[in-house]
């Protein structure tokens, strides 16, 4: 029986009702900042902020930083997700340090069915705390010093390749050169691969990694959906930011390397060996602690967990270092390090090529350090203070992550206001804009280490 007396009218009524419900669903969060008396960029239906899709991360960071120039923070929407853009340095310090326990998650989705999601970027809540606490001791200066020989071997192969290219007057594309270099370093210390000679295992590794960085259009669409759709729907659809092929390969490589080392009683000073040690400690219910003998002045900056609430610090019962967990930590090291190292070195090379005086001063510092220590060593590198300044300045002008994100994990009242941010609200920090602001860096366009 027709409700309106006409089946056609009933059909149109149902369609109109569905359209209204969809419209209401898409719009019902757009009053978020207005309700909290926070200035915000007016959203566009469905996409929220069109510039977030149309612009690169660098251009987006600059666009956002230039919006509301007199405000220390304001809101915008990524699709339906309310995001607070924070420009005030003091509030940024509160978010990243003092009030860290409110903002520990990065906002990346954790997909249980994807083994590679079990990493520091994707894990959330107590699982993230437990992993962060256990991984902290693996990044002390003492542990990095132990890996120096492998880093030096990779660097020697890089310089040999450059010398060969120069002797034959070849044009060298810097980014590709440094991407191969960074992939080799991480493949060596995070997966235990030997790049000193050609072999099928390293060739397959490079091929797989090139596929990761040369993401297909299909995988880009999937990644976009994973980042924008509700997590429940993502899980229901079985979507993952990492392809099934790369998941399978990384886990297989991890198990193969682990078994080979155990069968041949091989102990190697690398990140992979430290992860195996964490796995053994976890199986024996031992906790990972940061020994004071392994620390120096820099290591005190590492342990962000000191700002976690005492009640939220986890015990040691959670099993995080399964073979899949080790694969996830090694992979995120690779995924987060290869491109960033390549881009950073390319920018450094660009600026010292444009500034002969800086290049000359760097050369003199390197010669002086080598004369003092005789060989390349951890101590030699630590004496390159001007080199460090040059790298830092290149990072200021060309930040690898121009827009840093955090997620509100518990309600947070913005200091000095009555506005309370709800759980799940995203925080965006425009690193690129801050580091090119003449208010903080006089003549920001000038490369001045």
Automatic annotation (TrEMBL):
Q: Determine if Endoplasmic reticulum is one of this entry's keywords.
A: yes
Q: Name one GO cellular component term.
A: endoplasmic reticulum membrane
The family database entries (CDD domains) matched by this protein are listed as: CYP6-like
Cell compartment(s), UniProt:
Endoplasmic reticulum membrane; Microsome membrane
Q: Which GO terms describe its molecular function?
A: heme binding; iron ion binding; monooxygenase activity; oxidoreductase activity, acting on paired donors, with incorporation or reduction of molecular oxygen
**TM region positions:** 6-26
* UniProt entry keywords in alphabetical sequence: Endoplasmic reticulum, Heme, Iron, Membrane, Metal-binding, Microsome, Monooxygenase, Oxidoreductase, Transmembrane, Transmembrane helix
The annotated topology with respect to the bilayer is: Peripheral membrane protein
Assigned protein family: Belongs to the cytochrome P450 family.
The protein's job, in short, is: May be involved in the metabolism of insect hormones and in the breakdown of synthetic insecticides.
**What is the protein name stated in its UniProt record?**
Cytochrome P450
Which species does this protein come from? Homalodisca liturata
Organism placement in taxonomy: Eukaryota, Metazoa, Ecdysozoa, Arthropoda, Hexapoda
